[in-house]
Structures are given as C-alpha cells and as structure tokens.
Structure prediction request, 148 residues.
Amino acid sequence: MSDDDAPKLHIDSDWKSQAQAEKQKLAEATKTAQAPASGGGQSASPSGAGAKAAGGNPGGREMPPANFETLVSTMATQALFSMGAIPDPRTGQRHAQLELARHHIDMLSVIEEKTNGNLSDDEQSMLAGTLYELRSRYIQVSNQARER
Prediction:
C-alpha cells in the first residue's frame, strides 16, 4: 500500500469538546431515566432512556439500560444465585456455590476500588450498600453450611 492509498485521518480541532458534550448529554439522559426508578434498584422501568427493544427475547421484554446500577445489580444477582438465594429457573432448585459467590462479591469489591472517587454519591452509596448486604448474607450462608 503506497502513501497515497493509506487512509487519511482528519481530526477536527473541537472533536474533544464535541465528544464531551455528547457524553454529558448521555449522562443527563441516564440520570433523568433513573430518577423515577431510584427507589428499588431492580424495579427500573424498562421504557426509560437507554432501554433497547429485546427483539427476539421471549415475552417481548426489553433490555435494561446499560448503566452502573444495572452492572452492580447484575453482579449482585449472580452472587445471590451462587449463594442459593435464587432458585435455578430451569429446575427450581437452589444450589450454593460459595466459592463462586465469593468471586462475584470480590469482583464488586474490585469495581468499588477502581471507581473510587469517580462515582456519584448515589452510585457510591448503592455499591457500598450492596457489598454490605452481600457480605453479610455470605457470612450467614457460610456459617449455615459449616453447621451442617
């Protein structure tokens, strides 16, 4: 490929400010969408900004918004499932896999550590509260497993 055939990259002088403005608009839209759903965490309305139609998903459900709350909620659900708090949807049985539960809790701890100073007060509070609840439940389940 000669120099003439090489793709030319042209960066507009204000591309950074434009990207920042788009990021800010997206953050405001996400904050607005989360405002009515901030009470329960998992009861977020799927029709909020950022929600996408699930297309081929069973029941026509929509995907939750791709945001920090959904990330934490997903990881917490995996930890709860691994502690046997949530039954397997296929079998209805509860199975405790404490090593896996601990791994999910540790992953949330990594998120807490790596996002330190970069979260809103609400996000920090939600993450800290989620970790506290998961750790407390993990200790309770671990102690019950030892007593058996």
Summary: The CA atoms of residues 140 and 146 lie 10 Å apart. The helical segments are 15-34, 68-82, 98-114, 121-147. The first helix runs from residue 15 to 34. The beta strands are 52-53, 62-63.
